[in-house]
Amino acid sequence: xxxxxMKYEALSASQRSQVQQIELLDEQKTTFGDIHGALHGLxxxxxxxxxxxxxLVEDVPRGFFLLKRRTLLPAWAQGRTATLHALIxxxxxxxxxxxxxxxxxxPTVVSDLWPEIEQLMLTVHPTNHAALALYQAAGWAFSxxxxxxxxxxxxxxxxxxx
Length: 162
Fold this sequence. Notes:
The protein has a domain at 3-115: Aminopeptidase. It is 30% helix and 35% strand. It has helices at 13-19, 26-32, 35-43, 98-113, 129-137; strands at residues 3-7, 50-57, 60-69, 81-89, 119-124, 141-149, 152-160. A seven-stranded mixed beta sheet has the order 1-2-3-4-5-7-6, with helices on both faces.
């Protein structure tokens, strides 16, 4: 299964339409929102400090995430950091290693996009066991603190870039 990450803006019109068909289960939408909210955050006001990436599997969009830096960093992010948001894998393709593929390709994408970035950060709800296992397996580590977010307390995780 050939998988690549591509900037949202580089997709064909057909692929952009397919991105909008990425679905999450209802219980996932409660925590993460959905693809439409993530796309709105990206396209409402194009800005160089936010980038959207799509995971293409055999040239078909199956996943999506946002990266933010500098002026768009959340208050909990520190240093020369980019933050990962809205990592979404279509529920029909979860469990196939696509989230792991995104995280494996992510450091190279960030280093190529923003060479000044030294680390990645994210927050995750402590009851989201699947996400916690995914991030830890991909080399992310817990920071020493928790973050208060809309959904309550979340754990902050960090991954240093080479």
